[in-house]
Design a protein that fits this description.
Strand order of the largest sheet of chain B: 5-6-7-8-9-10-11-12
Number of strands of chain A: 27
Strand content of chain B: 15-25%
Helix content of chain A: 25-40%
Radius of gyration of chain A: 22 Å
Number of domains of chain A: 2
CATH architecture of the largest domain in chain B: Alpha-Beta Barrel
CATH class of the largest domain in chain A: Alpha Beta
CATH superfamily of the largest domain in chain B: Phosphoenolpyruvate-binding domains
Shape of chain A: globular
Strand order of the largest sheet of chain A: 5-14-13-10-6-7-8-9-26-27
Number of domains of chain B: 3
Distance between the termini of chain B: 46 Å
Largest interface: A-B, 22 and 27 residues
CATH architecture of the largest domain in chain A: 3-Layer(aba) Sandwich
Number of helices of chain B: 14
Structural class of chain A: alpha/beta
CATH superfamily of the largest domain in chain A: Glutaconate Coenzyme A-transferase
Helix content of chain B: 40-55%
Largest sheet of chain B: 8 strands, parallel, barrel
CATH topology of the largest domain in chain B: TIM Barrel
Shape of chain B: elongated
Radius of gyration of chain B: 24 Å
Strand content of chain A: 15-25%
Number of helices of chain A: 15
Oligomer: heterodimer
CATH class of the largest domain in chain B: Alpha Beta
Amino acid sequence: MTGNALGREIPDRIGSRKAIPFGGAFAKTPTGTKAPRPQKAAAQHEDKVLPTIEAAIEACGLSNGMTISFHHSFREGDRVINLVLDACARMGLKDLRICPTALFGVHEPIVGHIESGVVSRIEGSMNGPVGAFISKGGKLSEPAVLRSHGGRWRAIEAGAMEIDVAFIAAPQADPYGNATGIRGKTPCGPISFQAVDAQYARKTVVVTNDLAPYPVFPMEIQQGWTDYVVVVDEIGDPASIASGTLQLTNSPTNLLIARLTVEAVKASGYFKDGFSFQGGAGGMSLAATKFLGDEMEKAKIVGSFGMGGGTKMLVDMLRRGQIRAILDGQAFDLDAIASLREDPAHLMMDPGLYANYDSRGCSTYKLDAAFLGATEVDLDFNVNVNTHSDGQLLHGIGGHQDVAAGAAMTMITLPALRGRIPPIVERVTTVTTPGEVIDVIVTERGIAVNPRRGDLLERFRAAGLPVRELADIKRDADRYIQPVRRPVFGDEVIAAIEWRDGTVIDVVRKVEEWQ
Amino acid sequence: MEARVGSDAKADCLVVARQAERASVAVATKNRNLLENGIRAVAEGVLAALGRPGVAVEVQDQGALDYVLAARIETAVRTVLPEAKLTRSERVERAASDPDRPRRSRLYAPGNNPRLLVGIDIHGADCVLLDLEDSVPPGDKAAARTLVRRLLAAVPFPDEVWVRINPLDAGGREDVAEVLEGRPHGVCLPKAESGEGVRELSKELGKIERRLGFDVGSTHIMPIIETARGVLRCEDVAEADERVVVVAFGAEDYTRDVGARRTNEALLFARSRVVAAAKAAGVQASDTVYADLANDAGLAEECARARDLGFDGKGAINPRQIPILHHAFSPTEEELAKARAIVEAAREAESRGLGAVAVDGRMVDQPVLERARRLIKYAEKLAKGGAA
């Protein structure tokens, strides 16, 4: 057991591998080279199309104990993960390791596959019902490993996570294995989260419901990476993939936070021509993005780029000429998907381009400001997005670490008072993102600035913003609620939270009792 | 007998109380491990203050804050056992407010809706107005009263906080008897139609202030003129009592009362009368609310019109309207600069023993000078903020 740089106790080994304790957001210097992939030459007139998932599983030689991977771009509408795992179960496969970019409520059947031994390990993301199941005592053969989008990409590229078969759900593909997420019958936005899987997995299978004549483009997944193409009736439910138009929040508290966030951006010194920012799809982020657009228009500022999750809000800013480009890892609504097809300034980007620690450049490092959420923050500005205050592991990391580490000014927006469970705590239940990369916390009861950022503090004060100590904001909110109980954790580790460089920033342990 | 108080809406709780041998508490919450103990502590505290009467209390929580839980439990127990008397442990400390403080916005919040009440203090409204009247259905009046009293005791409002009561003979007396314990800065009297009505409320407030040990006269009154009769008699209303510091106009009820459509033309007479009556009495005037929440431009236009007529502020039905109101009813930089120039010129004229003062070639008379002085003082108060 070692305390890492944040004082979190990290076991020397997690499951079958040695754990390297987190040493600081930018402390690690990578060594070595990228992982190899078995060579293969395509035959001149090779037919890659297989009739069923089962046929693909057989052709790939998938066997017990191997690793398979998936992406999450279909979100709650995804059919493919369940389809593949059901096929594995029917074929009697056991002890598989799954490696999804994220899981959703729709993937609850995985719980059954864990109970029956089809799935025994999870790396990548473990959230929603599967997280709840494991938190409540469901057993995997090794602790789960959670990684950020960039961290997952890095792990695959570095050979830290070897994938046997990548199953890539594709809204459109051609028989030669080129595939995209922005065309077809059920477009979902970019699928290039799995471009790294496609290049490093021993076998790559594209699963589509829309087989189109060669060439399908853009070639997010390329023919040179793809072994097989499977055509199925349905890969996703369009109603649950991307919404028509996302709704702005109408909560007065959240709107106030969004307004304060934008006021802080205006006062930060970053708000000038060439300004760049990242906005998410949550109601509060959307509102902040909208207000930001209004202010940029008033101030006649042209931004360099907005980073997605793409939304109509960003697309409108691009069309009005308020930003020169959108860099998009995923698309949250149909407007964003249409814009990706039509507008060359709306760029698709994979996590290798925007988030990879072991790389010669990251788009997030070019961000001026980012708005991110949290389930908890603590007085050291550490952020938790993975567990709830009761210790349950319910959310993945997403791009939180990558964006927070990259942006010049990372802002956490969260209400200081959220029902009876305090979001500002002495010490977060789990550290997802370290306080050293969090600059500002915006609440409805004031704005807290990380003491490391005296420059921002001065600017905010000069602008008359309600700057306060985080502890004072916490005290203000806590007066309305009796203290909550705290979980007492045992020794058993159920998941490791990796920092984006592959070190372990925290572990999630099983709750033993309550104090 | 069984009482059900509250709801299953977010930020609220449903409390069911039944007569029983002994006092008991049962708690249902989505997050039992984290929350049960805290909720139980609040419930036990309320029962103890009520003398642990024979009531079984069941709390179904939806994320209610302590003061909401306590209010719901108190109302439920007192519904089952009307004779249960509450021991008050704390005295609310809240300084009386400056009668002529800025009141650019008066933000309404429905008095029995915890979701909209939580955080009502954080939006920077010059006056928050907790409503017991139109937004509260008749069956919920008692619950709303207790919730508002507990909220007033729990929340240290940075600016002014008011309670809109029901008409005195329709629950208003019970309203003030209870909510004054929470020490609001003032009480809004709806459908004010006579000086007598205002004086009656003032007398009632005086009695309660004495009982609670507050300075008699420290609670302000804001009569709301919202009937044809009220409009015709508004000078009596405005002049009726020292406690009146602002007169508000309510267009929704007024248009209904006279059968008008809600156009600027139809309201001009009433608005002008309210402003004139208020100013003649030396108090502020506050315009009606603007109901079209989505129309910021329309709100800004109506604010400008009200400001032109002489109103000092306006009602808001949603916090998002506040920045627009504050912008409209704050002095502009030019106005302030001009006022400063006038005051400066007057000072210079006085020091040189001159009778007449001119600024930019125009004569400045006494009312103009007074107005300029007031504007500067007002701007200083705005800059300082706070209710005192």
